[in-house]
Design goal:
By secondary structure, the protein is of the alpha+beta class. Helix content is 51%, strand content 16%. It is built from nine helices and eight strands. The strands form two sheets. A five-stranded antiparallel sheet has the order 3-2-1-5-4. Strands 6-7-8 form a three-stranded antiparallel sheet. Strand 6 and strand 7 form a beta hairpin. The longest helix is centred in the N-terminal third of the chain and has 33 residues. The radius of gyration is 27 Å and the shape is elongated.
Length: 275
């Protein structure tokens, strides 16, 4: 579907010839637009999304302003790529005498323009790139919306339990969650692959993980039920021994909930053993 969308957009832009490309040969216009669109949608935009996935400000935005801001950020590296590509094409075609029909705008033919002129042209180029990618994103959204128009909204909104929370985590620690620990304004996330600190409120994390299969066992601790290895007691203190060997404290207010979880046959964790 993505390739089909890029082909459709490339055909449209080839016919319209926006931003000074109409004077170029039709075949070159199509190849140019298809390459640029495919590069943006297939590489630049996904990489930008992965780069900013840990920024809480972006994650708290609604889908429309969040996507628009992501596209605006993605247009920055794309502008550099377009500029380098245009300069490379200009140098190539200026050195080839058997393609006299290829025309370059006057500004691109300047060998050493003033810095102010360069900055002005960079801003103009960014505006051009941003316009194209916003139009492309809008068309893609319309196509996707039409394709899924007959699917119930509840099905579209259905996601994997904890998906919103896991999208905040760096790839290096994976998603095999063991427990969470609140540390001031940060949240320590511990998985089978490692751990990391993310800027997030503890109660917000619990809310996003409410269908994941875990429970709060302390004012500052939340654990995944299936990662509990056993319950341990030391004097009046109660701990949970997790699958990675960590000891998680259980406060008195959550003690009965934990014991009930481990004692009920239907929900008893197979690896848990009471000491």
């Amino acid at each position: 579907m993505h390739i089909g969308i890029y082909v459709l957009l490339a055909v449209i832009f080839s016919l319209l010839g926006p931003f000074g490309t109409f004077d170029e040969p039709s075949v070159w216009r199509f190849v140019y637009w298809f390459t640029m669109l495919g590069l943006f949608g297939g590489i630049i935009l996904p990489l930008a999304a992965r780069s900013v996935r840990g920024i809480s400000f972006l994650k708290d935005l609604n889908i429309v302003p969040g996507t628009a801001l992501l596209v605006c950020l993605s247009a920055l590296p794309m502008t550099i790529i377009v500029a380098i590509t245009d300069i490379g094409l200009y140098n190539f075609f200026m050195s080839v005498t058997w393609l006299p029909f290829y025309e370059i705008s006057e500004i691109r033919s300047d060998i050493d323009p003033p810095v102010s002129l360069v900055l002005t042209e960079v801003v103009k180029l960014y505006a051009s790139v941003l316009t194209i990618v916003l139009i492309s994103a809008g068309l893609v959204s319309l196509i996707v919306a039409y394709r899924y128009k007959d699917i119930p909204q509840s099905s579209i909104l259905a996601v994997t339990p904890g998906a919103a929370f896991f999208s905040r985590l760096p790839d290096r620690i994976g998603t095999d969650l063991i427990y969470l620990q609140m540390e001031d304004h940060y949240l320590r996330v511990v998985t089978q692959a490692g751990e990391d600190l993310i800027l997030m409120r503890f109660r917000d994390a619990i809310r996003e993980l409410e269908t994941y299969g875990g429970l709060q066992v302390h004012r500052s601790w939340w654990v995944v039920s299936t990662e509990i290895k056993r319950l341990s007691r030391s004097g009046r203190k109660t701990f949970l021994i997790m699958s990675n060997g960590s000891k998680v404290p259980v406060s008195s207010s959550f003690k009965k909930t934990v014991e009930d979880l481990l004692s009920v046959p239907e929900t008893k964790i197979s690896r848990a053993s009471l000491l």
